[in-house]
TrEMBL record:
Pfam families: Peptidase_M16, Peptidase_M16_C. SUPFAM superfamilies: LuxS/MPP-like metallohydrolase (SSF63411). Residues 194-376 form the Peptidase M16 C-terminal domain. Residues 1-22 form the signal peptide. This is Putative peptidase, M16 family. Gene3D superfamilies: Metalloenzyme, LuxS/M16 peptidase-like (3.30.830.10). InterPro entries: Metalloenz_LuxS/M16, Pept_M16_N, Peptidase_M16, Peptidase_M16_C. Keywords: Hydrolase, Metalloprotease, Protease, Signal, Zinc. Residues 444-468 are annotated as: Disordered. Residues 40-185 form the Peptidase M16 N-terminal domain. It comes from the Bacteria. GO terms for biological process: proteolysis. Belongs to the peptidase M16 family.
Length: 468
């Protein structure tokens, strides 16, 4: 056992040292900005003649206002409907012509468009992205068709997906004032009433160079990138951005709970707590310690929740933990569990709370913390093998206000976490009064659109949630 641990230390040190050494040598990487405010980050990775292109806009569902939820995602869809230069499907066909692997994504904090291409096509693809930034067509007839595509996407991914509905209800209950309570895809009523003018307004406000970050990872140097980026983007004028209202989440003053009844054949339970994500004024060690706690509770097959609920007691079929250490909005640490047939949700909830309470009183073991730190850092190291993963990681940190140096500091700080840090954040943030509990219960052969008193938590349920 001692030999194995020494080998792990040696191997882990090799990983860290080789990665840092490679970065220190790389004078071919760097960041720069254009005169119009557009930011560019280049990471030179010459393992193959490929470049990952990721254009981030700091505009996600957190920036939406009431009545137009889902407009960020709808606008993303419309960006593939052509530009004035390349109308209709011509834009997409030009990407296909060079064999680009392309897609886009919208989440709470951002929208990103990405391509993986041959390095020789970089200038061409950048010119296409620049054209999309300033010349999107946004035709009403196209939007009417695309809106139906989005509504169908919502139906398949959310309305007909009981686990997604449960997740949606969890966020809508845990957050009362933050826009994080809204689904990224939007509320159905807002999608039904959305117009092309809503999308045009969103595009005009946020799709500007001084709200964008271009991340290039692969067989390109910062010098090569600068000339290509300037040729495509430098003449796009900057615009004044709308004032972003902070819309902070109010402090939680008591436990919250909900019951969702659907015609399903399984049950679920969730427990969530408001926790910090890394921002100015938030101690970095708290955020990293929460990630270590995430790993200790459910990050691998031998983690505490997995071992107790899945293997030993056989109460749970599957579990997951959702925590984003870097975000623009408030953080949430959410545990979701799918119960096995016959398992009582109240029993599962009590076991989860008892395992968390044990960490609060006894703390994790040294071995647990050691394993978590090494595994989390190794995961980051192995992600460097993917150009796209590097691009997305850099972009997500940047959209939350952190540059490359801060990102490196974040990952290196795993080594500083002690068992006392994990115990401290467990005590500080995992309180009964700040907990949001949810249950998904199966209801067969009943019209769930009609209100039923059975859906309301009983006094006994309230007492059990509060007292474990």
């Amino acid at each position: 056992m001692i030999k194995l641990k020494l080998m792990a230390v040696f191997f882990g040190s090799m990983l860290i040292n080789s990665f840092l050494f490679a970065e220190d040598l790389s004078s071919l990487s760097g960041s720069f900005s254009l005169s119009n405010g557009m930011m560019v980050t280049v990471v030179h990775d010459n393992q193959s003649p490929v470049v990952s292109v990721a254009l981030f806009y700091r505009a996600g569902s957190i920036d939406e206002v009431g009545g137009v939820t889902g407009v960020a995602h709808a606008c993303e869809h419309m960006m593939f409907r052509g530009t004035h230069t390349y109308p209709g499907l011509q834009f997409v066909n030009h990407l296909k012509k060079v064999g680009a692997i392309y897609n886009a994504g919208t989440d709470r904090d951002l929208t990103v468009y990405y391509e993986k291409i041959n390095r020789s096509d970089l200038g061409y693809v950048l010119s296409l992205e620049a054209d999309r930034m300033r010349n999107a067509t946004l035709d009403k007839d196209d939007f009417d068709k695309e809106r139906q595509v989005v509504i169908e996407e919502r139906r398949l991914r959310v309305d007909d997906n009981s686990k997604e509905l449960f997740d949606l209800q969890s966020y809508a209950t845990a957050f009362l004032t933050s826009p994080y309570r809204n689904p990224v895809i939007g509320w159905r009523a807002d999608l039904d009433e959305m117009t092309i003018d809503d999308v045009q307004h969103w595009y005009n406000e946020w799709y500007v160079p001084n709200n964008a970050l271009l991340v290039l990872v692969g067989a390109v140097t910062v010098q090569e990138a600068r000339s290509l980026v300037e040729a495509s983007f430098a003449d796009i004028p900057r615009k004044d951005l709308p004032v972003r209202k902070s819309q902070p989440e109010l402090p939680q003053r008591g436990a919250r709970y909900f019951v969702l009844e659907l015609p399903v054949t399984f049950s679920m339970v969730s427990l969530a707590w408001p926790v910090p994500s890394w921002k100015v004024g938030v101690p970095l060690i708290d955020t990293v310690a929460l990630q270590v706690l995430d790993y200790i509770l459910g990050g691998y097959s031998g983690a505490r929740l997995n071992k107790e609920l899945i293997k030993r007691r056989k109460l749970v079929e599957y579990l997951s933990i959702d925590y984003s250490p870097v975000s623009r909005g408030p953080g949430l640490f959410k545990i979701s569990l799918v119960a096995r047939d016959g398992a009582q949700l109240s029993t599962i909830r009590r076991v989860v709370w008892s395992l968390i309470s044990d960490i609060q009183t006894q703390g994790p073991t040294e071995d647990e913390v050691y394993s978590a730190k090494r595994s989390l850092y190794a995961r980051h190291i192995f992600d460097q093998d993917s150009l796209s993963n590097q691009s997305f990681d850099i972009g997500y940190f940047a959209m939350s206000g952190w540059n490359l140096a801060a990102r490196d500091k974040f990952y290196k700080s795993f080594q500083e976490v002690k068992k006392e840090d994990v115990q401290r954040v467990a005590k500080k943030f995992f309180q009964r009064f700040s907990m949001t509990c949810g249950e998904l219960r199966p209801v067969l052969n009943r019209d769930t659109s009609k209100h039923s008193s059975e859906s309301m938590p009983s006094d006994e349920y309230n007492e059990e949630v509060l007292n474990g």
